[in-house]
Write a structure and sequence with these properties.
It is built from 16 helices and eleven strands. With 434 residues, the protein is of the alpha+beta class. The chain has two domains: 8-215, 2-Layer Sandwich (Cytochrome Bc1 Complex, Chain A, domain 1); 229-432, Cytochrome Bc1 Complex, Chain A, domain 1. Helix 10 (283-291) runs antiparallel to helix 11 and helix 11 (322-339) packs parallel to helix 16. The longest helix is centred in the C-terminal third of the chain and has 18 residues, at 322-339.
């Protein structure tokens, strides 16, 4: 299998990395700017400042000085735009018809580099962000998603578990100079990636970028903080008691960070994940859904961050089926540890992974993120064909050895959301204790 990809990376004189992928068969363009700043860069007194800073452009830019003028300008060119702040990065995105790409670049540039109302409406915006904070923390499922991940670390609050929303005390304290200083440190081309995919004219687009993003001063690229595997928590059982008959569960194991291992090792973990619970033919899905009919949905996933990660089993089950579901989950993990995976399972997981990689190229949005994520992680670009080729090299022995390293019951965390009696909770704990 071979395909000539039209991907190109261009580094502007101010060190902005521009990633381009023309797609002549579509009628739209998707552009996303990654800024290397997020929750893990913040000290305690700065919690939430990355997110607060991301809100500022929505109040108006130099070219479009009010929220209404922003929205009207976006409507005029048929654009959808947004900003998102996470643990590791802040992103600004725009999607629009290819006929308006020039105006779209102007809009995105103004949004990223020319927010107007910093200071003017900052006190009012605090109310908006506090409301967003309350929306999150008063949602039991969102709170549970945060808590199960926070339990993965020894510390009460590990930076990898920070929410980008921040905390009320700091949100209320931010002032104009705090936001301006934060932007000065992080909002510069050397600390950014711009990824664009869709129906584009490369020559015209580069000329437009030179007169917008390209005119900013380079600044400095930032490095994220480094953490160690000694931060992983030991065996624990956590219950968030809620008056609901359906029980959500996560069973998590420590993994590794992508800066700690080769990409081949990451690929091995992905294949192992698909075999155990990441695909329709996986062991857990077949047993829990198809055979025993305990659940409607269940599976496996993984979080791989720069210096730490986790492998987890998840699902939702009626309260009376919680114990048999936990027993079956433990038994399937034990089978992998004792007898390993099969060649047939490996081949199926290779094909499943290959299809997922190839289908990334269905839309400009997924393509833009496909390249932006690899460059942001400072990886060499792997096209789908490279992933498929590397997957063919993965051996049964490698997957079985990896399983023995990942499935460490002394460090397993079991997290439950729902109405679980103490007796049942104790029984769940006994299932996984070794």
């Amino acid at each position: 299998m071979s395909k000539k990809h039209p991907y190109k990376e261009i580094v502007l004189p101010n060190k902005l990395r521009v990633l381009l992928y023309p797609m002549d068969s579509v009628m739209s363009v998707y552009a996303v700017v990654y800024v290397r700043v997020g929750a893990i860069y913040e000290k305690q007194k700065e919690r939430g400042i990355s997110h607060f800073t991301e809100h500022m452009p929505f109040l108006g830019t130099k070219a479009l000085p009010t929220p209404l003028s922003l929205s009207q300008a976006a409507d005029e060119i048929g654009a959808k735009y947004n900003g998102i702040t996470g643990r590791f990065k802040t992103e600004y995105l725009i999607k629009l018809p290819y006929t308006n790409i020039g105006k779209g670049v102007d809009f995105l540039y103004n949004f990223v580099f020319e927010p107007l109302n910093i200071g003017k409406d900052i006190e009012k915006e605090k109310n908006v962000i506090l409301s967003e904070y309350n929306d999150f923390w008063h949602n039991p499922d969102k709170k549970f998603n945060h808590e199960f991940w926070r339990k993965r670390f020894k510390q009460k609050e590990h930076p990898y578990s920070y929410r980008a929303l921040g905390i009320p005390r700091t949100i209320k304290a931010f002032e104009k100079n705090d936001i301006l200083h934060w932007r000065e440190q992080y909002y510069n081309p050397a600390n950014m990636i711009l990824s664009i995919a869709g129906n584009i004219n490369e020559k015209q687009l580069i000329e437009k970028l030179k007169t917008t993003f390209g005119k900013e001063k380079a600044g400095t690229k930032r490095k994220e903080p480094k953490f160690g595997s000694n931060d992983y928590s030991n065996f624990s059982v956590f219950l968030q008691n809620e008056p609901r008959p359906q029980i959500r569960f996560f069973v998590t194991f420590p993994a590794f960070g992508y800066k700690q291992v080769s990409r081949q090792k990451e690929l091995q973990l992905e294949l192992l994940k698909d075999i155990l619970g990441g695909s329709p033919s996986s062991r857990l899905y077949h047993r829990l859904r198809r055979k025993e009919r305990f659940v409607y949905s269940a599976g496996c996933n993984m979080n791989i961050y720069p210096w730490m990660g986790a492998f987890y089993v998840w699902g939702s089950v009626p309260a009376e089926k919680l114990l048999p579901t936990m027993k079956s989950t433990k038994q399937e993990i034990d089978k992998v540890l004792k007898t390993g995976v099969t060649e047939k399972e490996i081949n199926l997981s290779r094909k499943y992974m290959a299809a997922a990689r190839l289908m990334h190229f269905d839309s400009p949005e997924s393509v833009a993120y496909y390249f932006a994520n690899q460059v942001f992680d400072e990886d060499k670009i792997w096209f789908p064909e490279r992933y498929i080729k590397e997957a063919e090299k993965v051996t049964k022995e490698e997957l079985n050895n990896l399983a023995k390293k990942i499935f460490d019951y002394s460090k397993v965390n079991i997290s439950l959301l729902g109405n679980v009696p103490d007796k049942t909770l104790k029984a769940v704990e006994e299932i996984f204790k070794v």
